[in-house]
Amino acid sequence: MNSEILSVRNLSIAFDNIRVTDRVSFNISNGEIFALMGESGCGKSVTAMAIPRLLPYPSAKIASGEIIFEGKNLLELSAKDMYKVRGKRIGCVFQEPMQALNPVAGIGAQLLEAVRFLPKENRLKRIKELMAKAELKDPERILKSYPHEMSGGMLQRIVICMALAPKPSLVIADEPTTALDANIQTAVMDTLKNLCKSENAAMLLITHNAHLAAKYADKIAVMYAGKIAECGNATDVLNTPKHPYTKALLNVVPAKGKTLADLKPIPGSVLSPKDFDDGCRFRFRCEFAKEECAYDIKC
Amino acid sequence: MILNVENLSVTFRSKGGTVHALKNICFSLDEGDVLALAGESGSGKSTIANALVGLVPWERGGTYELFGENINPYQKKSFSFVRSKMQMAFQDPYSSLNPRNTVFEIIAAPLLAKGISKSKAAEKAKKMLDLVGLSNADLNKFPHAFSGGQRQRIGLARALVLEPKILICDEITSALDVSVQAQILHLLNNLRKELNLSLIFISHDIAVMEIIANKILMLKNGETVHSRLFT
């Protein structure tokens, strides 16, 4: 049985005293791919960025909960100790690779920065090993290039190499392929998955794309309006969704053989954190909503 | 046939060399058609859209027929007729709306430029907002007050305010969530029926194209690699 490397327990995050996530809990095991799925504004990225403590403090505050990573509560670590975790034990891959890299620094310099903790003689070897695994051909040329000389797909592969260079045990991938073409998305996701597997790193995949979650994730948590609506094995959540929001989310995904009539848009938009109450937060958009959903959460 | 394009070629010349962005592209559009332009980034999809509305120069040798009129693509003024029949909605709902203009100013700008009075433009703008599913109260708000999907609706209202017959949608759902994407696809389909529109739908998502389009033109490196009708 795989051991747990990350356990998020009852995590509530507030921005300027308004709670945006509410008692979020999930566990990620060693080497597992865990997808956090939901629409924009549901709190996926906020939850993910709270793990390496990358939220914009002081406006963001952890109202409650703990984040246990490799046996330590990250929320109790000093800023100095956090440096030993962030980037080293937890790698991050962001949505927009062009913004994740420094435009005035060479690719080689940026990759070398990611392996600065290794002995000097091993650094280049480690970078080239990862570049080969990430199917980046002609590494010598790439190392001498600048970000603007690379395509989006190549840049994202470079960011993936940077995230995995320090051999982290967890990689947080926040919509890693949303900014890329559909045909490159699969190739980049394959690279990310294969690299994580070969480096034995777990992955927290943030996505709004059910296809992506279905293809790559072992476990899925569906998030809505700051709360986890449903969590379980990927096949169970996707094949037999229990929460009406999960069902609604799966109904809007375009797929081969579907017609426009099969796409059933979810009416309205995600509830603003200012309007959160104790009832089911999906009830305003839910086709199964009843009166008691306003005070009793049954789903 | 409402649109027929033959041998559309576009070449960009710079100090670095010459790029043949489009090579002898031919396609046509019948009334009510939804033509999908598919292909990866850099294949020339958006260049076709830009060439159709005169935003990039055509190479010699191409012919362009719109609603029975022969358009001279080498003369700038011939595109004023094109723009009365064909309008564009853009990919990025955040950068395609002027952040300093109100929704009214954005939607009414094409009308005011045509010399239509402000009161009539306001009336028309309200009608357009209603058509795309926004309320009249939104007229005096600024773009930052809206979500991505709502901004895309404002972009659609602006494109449709001149009552074009052909709407070019340049990756209008690419920057949106799947749930908002479904709302916009339904909206487009309703608008198409209500306003008797024909669409040129640019995308790189085959699943989305299969859902909305009845014709597809697949591009690679500026050339047509596949062209067919969906059944």
Give an overview in words.
The complex is a heterodimer of chains A (299) and B (231). Chain A has one domain (4-294): Rossmann fold. Chain A is globular and about 65 Å long. Chain A has helices at 44-50, 79-83, 97-100, 107-114, 120-133, 139-143, 152-164, 182-198, 210-216, 234-239, 244-251, and strands at residues 4-15, 18-29, 33-37, 60-69, 72-73, 90-93, 170-174, 202-207, 219-224, 227-233. A 6-stranded mixed β-sheet of chain A has the order 6-7-8-3-9-10, sandwiched between helices. Chain A has 11 helices and 10 strands. The longest helix of chain A has 17 residues, at 182-198. Chain A starts with a strand and ends in a 48-residue tail after the last helix. Chain A is α/β, with parallel strands linked by helices. In chain A, 31% of the residues lie in helices and 23% in strands. In chain A, strand 7 (170-174), helix 8 (182-198) and strand 8 (202-207) form a beta-alpha-beta unit. Chain B is of the alpha/beta class and 231 residues long. In chain B, 34% of the residues lie in helices and 28% in strands. Chain B contains 7 helices and 10 strands. Chain B has helices spanning 45-52, 79-85, 103-113, 118-131, 148-160, 178-195, 206-212, and strands at residues 3-14, 17-29, 34-38, 63-66, 69-71, 86-89, 166-170, 198-203, 215-220, 223-229. In chain B, the strands form 2 sheets. Chain B has a 6-stranded mixed β-sheet with strand order 6-7-8-3-9-10, with helices on both faces. In chain B, strands 2-1-4-5 form a 4-stranded antiparallel β-sheet, with helices on one face. In chain B, a hairpin with a 2-residue loop joins strand 1 (3-14) and strand 2 (17-29). Chain B starts with a strand and ends with a strand. The mean pLDDT of chain B is 91. The interface between A and B is medium-sized, with 27 and 23 residues.
Keywords:
heterodimer, A: 299 residues, Rossmann fold, 6-stranded mixed sheet, globular, B: 231 residues, alpha/beta, 10 strands
